[in-house]
User: What shape does this take?
Amino acid sequence: MTHAGDRTGSADARGRDPGRGQGSVRLPPAGWRTAPDGGRPRPPACRHLDEERPTPSRLPVTGCAECTAAGRQDWVHLRICLDCGHNGCCDSSAGTHAWQHAADTGHPIAVAVEEPWAWCYADEVFLVPDSAGPVQ
Assistant: This one.
């Protein structure tokens, strides 16, 4: 899935940010809830929202851990694991390291660095900040 980018610093001519993958992502103070999805026969649900996990207000953005270790910075977007803070690249990136991290560890929820949403890999549902208004 492709989503817009939250970038620090100024972008170059190709739209890439020379300081990509640095900074932090702010988490919603009220937590998460499933996003409405009119394309499903039943309302979407995430069975992981009630699990206890650390509740920092920000998570550090350091770039995709696996891509950086391989000397690459060609990820499209970053996702941060809510369980352990792992920085991984999105499914539109060559490495798909956020998905691989979820599959390897069983950590289900990753936050999009660029926009205020998260994804539950286990239940395949979008999550939005609980303060985003009523579910429709």
Q: What stands out?
A: The first helix runs from residue 65 to 69.
